Amino acid sequence: MSERLQAIRGMHDVLPERAPIWQHLEDRARAVIEGYGYREMRTPLVEPVELFKRSIGEVTDIVEKEMYAFDDRGGDRLALRPEGTASCVRAAIEHGLLDQPQRIWYRGPMFRRERPQRGRYRQFHQIGVEVLGLAGPDVDLEVITMTRRLWQALGLADLRLELNSLGDSDERARYRTDLVAHLQAHESALDDDSRRRLDTNPLRVLDSKNPALAPVIAAAPSLLDYLGDNSRAHFEALCAGLDAAGIGYQVNPRLVRGLDYYNRTVFEWITDALGAQGTVCAGGRYDGLVAQLGGRDTPAVGFALGVERLLDLIDTSSIDTGPDAYLVTLGEAAAAAAPAIAERLRDAVPGLKLLMHCGGGGFKNQFKKADKSGAQLALILGDEEVAQGTVGCKPLRGAGEQRSLSFDDLVATLHERVNQRT
Hints:
Layout: H1 19-34, E1 39-40, E2 46-48, H2 49-55, H3 61-66, E3 69-71, E4 77-80, H4 85-94, E5 102-111, E6 123-132, H5 137-154, E7 160-165, H6 169-185, H7 192-198, H8 214-218, H9 229-245, E8 250-251, E9 263-270, E10 279-285, H10 289-292, E11 300-306, H11 307-311, E12 325-330, H12 332-348, E13 354-356, H13 363-372, E14 377-382, H14 383-388, E15 390-395, E16 403-406, H15 407-421
Parallel strand pairs: 1-5, 7-8, 12-13, 12-14
Antiparallel strand pairs: 2-4, 3-4, 5-6, 6-11, 7-9, 9-10, 10-11, 14-15, 15-16
Helix pairs in contact: 1-5, 5-9
């Protein structure tokens, strides 16, 4: 017997019983995001390695350690995309979309070779938005407000917003000099990873999860003290907008992002319910990335949310994972008429999830399968019902008696069921 094959470690199947929960999140995310006028963009899973070296940064953990990179047969150096922003910017430049502001969103799998653990997978999924061509704090406020509306749509209440400003490049350069001096003065207390970052990406030391470094990080200078007038005004206007919108937040001067392209606004939505992997959504402004990838100077801001992490937070008890109705038959005439009746019902009730029994079997066995399917209703079609132009309807979940309904009455009942589900 051949050896049984399994999925690659850190890459998971989404089985039919779980897929409706993914659809629940995706449908609500799409409705919220497109409610702000954003349009969907779909980009390839495979991109040139150089795209991510130039955008994320060659000395980031993602490019150095985590990215799936390979040579194809033509000798090109390719990578499975580890994040979505660089691909969206590359596509906008390539297809000439930057002659006017763009509000776009995307969804799909990303790939990083990390140690699999709860909330961190090698194939993971993100939903994100990108705004290209708008520079003001008003659009920063818009994308944060959008995320708050999404949490409301998903019934999530225990998320907190942390906010910071990374300033502009010259301000970060001055800060970087003082931060390195501070860290070098405490070099004996740094771990190996932080020492390595001293020469490459010292701001990332502020994001260290090593509790032994907490006193050193707490004593570090604050980047907010290095902001110039324009960066400070931008950040204060964003904070004022959040206050006016009633969105609570905490200014965290130690908040940095793991990607090199961020400037000014950075933010994270965090939960305490997922352990160490508590960030479920993160984003910020990246005004230099378009030019960095070969386009003209274009301000930009966006965010990405982790689908798997959000799914762990959603209350799934009220999400229907089965069909609305299961059609069972009794008798030869009923079995012959059932396919046409099922199609008429699907035509008459948009969005109906109707499962018709196939494969024969006795009436009792069909009812067992109807119940096991998770359907809310059993539709019963016998030879007598065919002759009378009726269909039996029996609730499978909760109380309720079986009724014999005309086609029109059945359509009304199924409409009610679909409306209840959606």
